[in-house]
Alpha/Beta hydrolase protein (Crucibulum laeve), 395 residues
Amino acid sequence: MPFATIPANATLKPSPFTVAIPDASLEELQVLLKHSKVAPDTYESFHEDRRFGITNKWIREMKENWRSFDWRKNEAHINSFPHFKAPIDDDDGNQYSVHFVGLFSQKTDAIPLMLLHGWPGSFLEFLPIMDHLRTTYTPETLPYHVIVPSMPGYTFSSPPPLDKDFRLEDVARLFDKLARGLGFGKGYAVQGGDVGSGVARVMAAEHESCVGVHINFCIMPQPVGVDDSTLNDLDKEGLVRSAEFSRIGSAYALEHATKPSTIGIVLSSSPLALLAWIGEKFLDWTDEDLPPETILESVSLYWFTETISTSLYPYRQEFTPGNIGAHENLQWHINKPFGFSWFPKEIAPVPRSWAATTGNLVFFRQHLKGGHFAAIERPEALWKDFEDFITQVWV
């Protein structure tokens, strides 16, 4: 497959991987959907503005769409990209199998890059960017090596161990080992959103080979001593949105953080429950509505890989009341080049001045469109930001 040749100096030996969901899993989903009940109509479920959550009308329509959803078509598209699994021995004595999508260049001076997803995302988020790259370049002209790893506990990567409180630091260490094992030890840069932005920050702070970080998510409380008098209208609108997320949009995060076992059991028991829980985020956190197929592809992948319960662990660290989040944590201040892209429909679009207190901010761009899933909603804009950041800082 084009772009699938691992760099010659790699010490890891990843195995090619093909996504192949068993027919029995597809058949089981259809049976479960057929017999899944939709909740009775209520005052709350009739509000088209979704002030109380998604509507019964939406869930009924999406249930029918899911019953005719062509997973094999989507699976074929997924498999048109090179996939790999790499065994990584970690310092905790465990071996992890880390799944990643990769586009590898034949250029000897290709710049190594890593793209990191969050929740309820997956590697699927970055396939539009990967598609843009493989249609723009050939393996001989691609200026970059680009890898998109699946977070531990997500899709095809190993779950966290049962006897350890797995944290962002553990993910960062595994991904640094992955990068260095692929021959990126002289330096690589990372882009991340959502949970991936926190992992990227830790990689920059704790791992020498990570030479720069660009993020599009920097949720944090207002820093002490920052003057907000210079904020523009977009900044002010973003802070209103941030306050609303904190006030009425973050209940899911508290549930993930404080009772992950309970919600993991609930969401693993019914595909319709999973669709409602994830679908709400794709509806509320985007600037423009995503196609139903995009939502169903993501939810289907969580369902088929049985990873919703193993994907929730970052919230204990990030959202448990009293904990310090990743971006305001002084031990993960980014002293290396740091870039930040601002999108208006992000769940918590903080101003440049706030983000600048968390690192050596050398690149900032404010957009007029786009939301939390920028890699899906505005792939070329996000990629241009990251590429411009790399051009500015890579020496």
Notes: The beta strands are 15-16, 83-89, 95-103, 111-116, 144-149, 188-192, 210-215, 334-342, 359-366. The CA atoms of residues 120 and 281 lie 8 Å apart. The mean pLDDT is 97. The first strand starts at residue 15 and ends at 16.
